[in-house]
Write a structure and sequence with these properties.
Elements lengths: L7 H8 L3 H26 L4 H7 L4 H9 L7 H10 L10
Length: about 100
């Protein structure tokens, strides 16, 4: 008798039925998404983390934290500086 290996998507689908798990999963997704967007903007501009840090007057370590997805202290001012440094427009939405 062979056991079927569980696929990640199958496990996730089952876990998302739990309302508390789903809430935390979605919060984590939003944090990761913002970090990913910052990294993507920086890379599209051909900038290193150090170069972006210089443009927004912060450290490379701070840029790494912002891009990492674990950071919770995003400030509006910092996001505005990143938008300016990458030639983009910051847009905040409530849905």
């Amino acid at each position: 008798m062979t056991k079927k290996l569980l696929d990640f998507q199958d496990v996730l689908k089952e876990e998302l039925k739990d309302k508390e798990f789903k809430k935390y999963y979605e919060e984590e997704g939003r944090r990761l998404e913002l970090g990913y967007k910052i990294a993507n903007l920086r890379q599209k501009q051909g900038l290193t983390q150090k170069e972006l840090a210089e443009k927004v007057h912060t450290s490379q370590a701070t840029v790494a934290r912002l891009e990492g997805g674990e950071y919770l202290g995003y400030s509006l001012r910092t996001l505005e500086k990143i938008a300016l440094a990458t030639g983009t427009h910051l847009e905040i939405r409530f849905r």
